Please model this.
Amino acid sequence: MNSTAQINAEEHKYWNSDSADYWVSQKSALDQFLEPWARLLVGAAQLSGGEQIADIGCGTGATTLKFAASVGTGGRVTGIDLSRKLIDSAISSARERAIENVMFVEADAAEYRFPCPQDLIVSRCGVMFFGDLVAAFSHLRSGLARAGRILLVVWRAPEQNEWYQFPVRCAAPFSDQEPKHDPDAPGAFTLADPSKVKQILVSAGFRNIQLRAVTEKLCVGQTVKSAAELFMAMGTIRNLLDRADVELLDQVKCHMSQGLEAYRQESGVYMNGTCWLVHASA
Model:
């Protein structure tokens, strides 16, 4: 098994393990946290109605459903994700809201064959997990119509994202491990380097590549308690504290809650988040 196949297999295993439960159990909180990016994508898409759109790494479906509502009944949106648990959650949301111009597919987007050419491919922080990024984006480009476009939100560097730095700073003193961040491995910040993003997209055959830095205040919780619970459930924090007992976990959560008071506003707890809005033509 080569490294690309191994990475893809590991990602499939990860997103179909208990790790997916975090995204399902924290669905409402995470959708609110990431809502500014979904709103940014829809606004930047400049939809005319009737488009065929694919949402890559769609998770529990919030961005997919937002686009489905925007293209009207003449359009169709396909949400694609590796995780059966996340796809099931997305399907449930579509049924609850009676949105019919949407389809959710459990698949690896690096291999999925679209039934028809797509006018637009979008992703809200969902394209950083491919084993071979150039091959994956080349495949996605092949699924676009001749005048098709790709529109992505990807996180900028971890040190520029307060929502990430804060919980890591809180948990690190209680851990005997160092926070790990490998920019070359699949993960949230894999596409943080704009020159890397451009190189990948050029190699994949895209044209007219543009990146714009966008910073937003992100709601990390309605209350200090819910924000602390969200952070404590993050994969990075769980990894840092994987050897901690219940008493130590409670200490970390208490320490985190005290720090969160500084970010509390009337409408919730807010921290800065920053991304690249990436646009390119097929």
About this structure: The chain has a mean pLDDT of 94.
